[in-house]
Amino acid sequence: MSRQWKSRLFVGTMVLSLAVSFGTLGWLLVTTLIHGLPGISWRLFTAPPSTVPEEAGARPAILATVYIAVLLLAMCVPVGVATAIYLEEYARKERWYNRVLEVNIQNLAAVPAIVYGILGLAFIVRGIGVGRVLFAGALILTLVVLPTVIIASREAIRAVPDSIRQGGLALGATKWQMIWRQVLPASIPGIATGSILALSRAVGETAPLLLIGALQYVAFDPTLFGAFTALPVQIYTWVKLPDPAFQTLAAAAIIVLLVIVLGMNALAIFVRNRYRQRW
Amino acid sequence: MTEMETPSIDSSRIAEISLSSSREEIERREKVFAVENLGVAYSGNVALAGVTMNVYANTVTAFIGPSGCGKSTYIRCFNRMNDLIVGAVVSGTVRYHSSDLYGRDVDPVEVRRRVGMVFQKPNPFPKSIYDNVAFGPRVLGWKKGLDERVERSLRQAALWDEAKDRLSESALDLSGGQQQRLCIARALATEPDVILMDEPASALDPIATARIEDLMHDLKREYTIIVVTHNMQQAARVADMTAFFSVETREDGGRHGVLVEVDATTKIFTQPTDRRTEDYVTGRFG
Asked: pTM, whole model, 2 decimals?
């Protein structure tokens, strides 16, 4: 086979792979839209779930997902960024405990979310007795995405050139002033992008929430320390029901979740492009 | 903003000053740094050893020598930048005026305010021109008269005329030479006593280089300047004193930098006492 043909074959393989992944995604989107669009109505956002499909909505679930997302950001970003700053700017790599930390964070990012659910059930819900409430769910999802936020923040901090750090220190800035006034502002785009992407993953998580006992029927608006459901849990519940009308509702709820997630991803891309740092 | 005179540039004066300063005349000036038996090791690897010399006020002192002779390592001892490198150990003494620069009660952060530094590659912060110059004063909490201070610093660095109408624009839009002068202005804004320049013109074109050299001549009236340079003509043009460093191979096969000789620049370039200096300045080496 000639070199030219090998090259064409390679390109052909890549195009095929691309077609498979995009095709699957497209097919999923189209079927979801076909099934779900008829179910999209104002009622979905205003009514609580019901055993009668014509009266059922997902208001408590949608609200809970929004609450969880906000709580998640508020807990995850400060802890994640602080950890990343420690690891990048203060930790001395030759110390064994820092190396253990590093390896652990890498591994934690790869742990399946259901494992965090078990951990959360044992330590957060029962151990410290938070109970099966929305706040516990947010805490567990924070744990799920924290490693991702830490890793993204570290990447962003590491991308700040050392010449900027040296320049700051050489002017008589303390280490903290240098980090606060130079390194952090310069790494905000990367941190924001990583956090938003982590968040969009978290709002789609179902398993850990089911495990800690997110309720399948919640007919009232969620509160921080009350029983709750979430959008993915609501979808799961509806999909299990035999009445085809609930399948339409589930598909409609999937569209809502998709819009939320894709919207956040779009925001991440916008932030990255808008505030892209150059040196 | 206050009206100030922009320092004028007179190249004939430059040649005259450099050549006229004799060692005796320079050594009558105030001693800013007294370095004694200084050595630097990185994680046990000696990079520089046995340096003893003085740096005098209102003088440009140049460090020259081949690559690996430790001159950049050495210049970083004067503002304790080596402290930032994990595993770096500085031995010997550096006296700054009358105090021990590496003394127990000395705060490296304060040292770096008084001993400013300009790096090889211009490193403006990704902020506006104004914010770059104001960074030092702001971290020090000097809030009063910030506008005047920024203007004064930019004037001293001969950048005011080019920058005054675009203070709020990004410093990254300046040319390389302007960026380097901005870095000098930024260093001046914290009212330092000494300015260290680590090959400040090596990334610049000849015209930008000439402006930096002119600037050094103007600045030495008020500041003490130490400059590392690869360029011997540059040392000859700007420095009153020149220290020549070389690489020495130890018995264990390791190599480290040593100070070969330090003298008035004219002397170093016309009648060096050491054979190695002569080989280097006449181009037979390196």
From this structure: 0.82
